[in-house]
Amino acid sequence: MAAIIGARDNISAGDSGLYSPAKEKAATRGVYSSRSPLLLRRIRQLLGAAKVKLLLALCIFFAVIFISSRIGSLMGWNPHYPSSVSSPSRRGGYTVLINTWKRNSLLRQAVAHYASCSGADAIHVWSESDPPSNSLIDYLRDIVFSKSQTAHKPNFRFDLNEEDNLNNRFKPIEDLRTDAIFSVDDDVIVPCYTLNFAFTVWQSSPSTMVGFVPRMHWLDVGKDGVAYYKYGGWWSVWWMGTYSMVLSKAAFFHRKYLDLYTFKMPLSIHDYVTRERNCVDIAMSLLVANATGAPPIWVRGKIYEI
């Protein structure tokens, strides 16, 4: 029995020592065939993960595009607004319309500041019946010339109104070279870089009103069942997280709204503003919203009230 086992061992040892290409090829094929399922599974796993990541990236990309388009429509933002709104020469700058009344020290500061902003093509000062002194006019013209940082110096002019009426703040202005008007009170200072950014926002949607002072109004129902509008200041905007208007104390709008305000605004609103000497900025904001069917755009930026 031992001899038989020994013989078999010898045979096995002799066989293993002989070279056979067929055996070598078979053995090699056996090694790779045992590894190939693992390799294929690994490759499939990597391809599957790559497909999932690609699909996820595409979903996120299209979701961002969809959300951006929805936000744009809600905000009245139209980056592809027709170029026929205004000629390129008038889109190059804006006219600063400063509202003042017997506050010459504030007016001097405001004119000096806005003259230094590169986008200011002209500065108009709106004032009621009392004409400014010649010395004040000369002083302000010198400020505009000295403070301007561009070769093209802004035009400067007082727009006087003989009639004591707050509606005159939005009378049409002759000889304007810009479509954009920046309406601002004499006690509000907007840094030039912030103002220029707001101007680019307005250029993307020139029919809307773009401003720095948001306000809120909403419909409320009294105990008697009668519905009426309530007006909320800044704290209403902060608390509710929304706004429905921007005030003309610091806002851009198209010059065409001066004509609409003067000639198309309902007479009852003109009478109310004349009688109460208030709410002219609310009237302008709602006029623009009514004409466009779009809300205003609030630009968040630091401004200073002096």
Q: What's this model, at a glance?
A:
The chain has 306 residues and is of the alpha/beta class. It has a domain of 212 residues: Spore Coat Polysaccharide Biosynthesis Protein SpsA, Chain A (Alpha-Beta Complex). Helices cover 48% and strands 18% of the residues.
Q: How are the SSEs placed, and which strands pair?
A:
Blueprint lengths: L1 H16 L3 H54 L19 E6 L4 H12 L4 E8 L6 H14 L7 E6 L19 E6 L2 E2 L2 H13 L5 E2 L2 E8 L5 E6 L1 H7 L4 E2 L3 E5 L1 H8 L3 H10 L3 H13 L4 E2 L5 E2 L1
Parallel strand pairs: 1-2, 1-4, 2-3, 6-11
Antiparallel strand pairs: 4-10, 5-12, 6-10, 7-8, 7-9
Helix pairs in contact: 3-4
Describe the structure.
Residues 94-300 form the Glycosyl transferase domain. It holds the Pfam family Glyco_transf_64. With 306 residues, the chain is of the alpha/beta class. The protein has nine helices and twelve strands.
Distance between the termini: 117 Å
Q: What is the highest CATH level, the class of one domain?
A: Alpha Beta
N to C succession of SSEs: HHEHEHEEEHEEEHEEHHHEE
Helix content: 40-55%
Taking all residues together, what is the mean pLDDT? 77
**What is the helix tally?**
9
CATH topology category name of one domain: Spore Coat Polysaccharide Biosynthesis Protein SpsA, Chain A
Strand order of the largest sheet: 3-2-1-4-10-6-11
> By CATH's scheme, which homologous superfamily of one domain applies?
Spore Coat Polysaccharide Biosynthesis Protein SpsA, Chain A
- Unreliable stretches (pLDDT < 50, length at least 5) are 1-17, 30-34, 68-90
What's the count of strands? 12
Radius of gyration: 37 Å
- Beta-strand content: 15-25%
Protein name: Glycosyltransferase family 64 protein C4-like
Pfam family, one: Glyco_transf_64
Family: Belongs to the glycosyltransferase 64 family.
Organism: Nelumbo nucifera
